[in-house]
Amino acid sequence: MAAYDEIARLPIAQADAARLPVPDSSVAAVVSVLAHTDMPAYFAVLREVARVLRPGGVFVNLGVHPCFCGGFADRGDPAAVLVRPGYLDGHWTKESWTDQGIRAKVGATHRPLPALLNAFLDAGLTFDRCAETGAPLPIVLAVRAVNR
Ligand SMILES: C[S@@+](CC[C@H](N)C(=O)[O-])C[C@H]1O[C@@H](n2cnc3c(N)ncnc32)[C@H](O)[C@@H]1O
């Protein structure tokens, strides 16, 4: 019960993720869920994460797996993912293997895996753990990083 009361009193802010109303080096942890495909300026968001995290603070980024999703990855066959040309392009697209999902409606920014991970390092965030989930091939990539 005490833990619930503490959570209920956490402050909430609604803002541009690239301009957080949070002081420098002031928070112990930042979590980003399903955002790196949905914010074209996501690398600026990573720099903002590094700004608000205190040194040694932890950042967890969980999002669409860059290797198996995007306009180039066809999940029409439930037993396999057909990867077409496009992985290396790193672009915003509304292309999707299905016209039923959200991506065909709002689109997504695809970034190849090295572009995404190198942007962490460029922002001053050193990743120390990764995980991927989904079947039969990963859908989600999670990265934990520490602010230098
Ligand atoms: C795929 S949704 C994920 C939402 C939520 N994190 C979740 O897991 O359900 C991406 C969200 O990012 C928001 N968004 C896009 N650009 C943003 C920005 N610059 N700052 C804050 N939010 C943004 C969109 O409005 C959308 O709600």
From TrEMBL:
Pfam families referenced in this protein's UniProt entry, alphabetically: Methyltransf_11
SUPFAM superfamilies, alphabetized: S-adenosyl-L-methionine-dependent methyltransferases (SSF53335)
Any one Gene Ontology BP term: methylation
Domain Methyltransferase type: 10-60
Keyword Transferase: yes
Keyword annotations of the record: Methyltransferase, Transferase
Entry coiled-coil feature ranges: none
Record bears the keyword Transferase: yes
Annotated GO MF terms: S-adenosylmethionine-dependent methyltransferase activity
Protein name (database record): Methyltransferase family protein
Organism expressing this protein natively: Amycolatopsis echigonensis
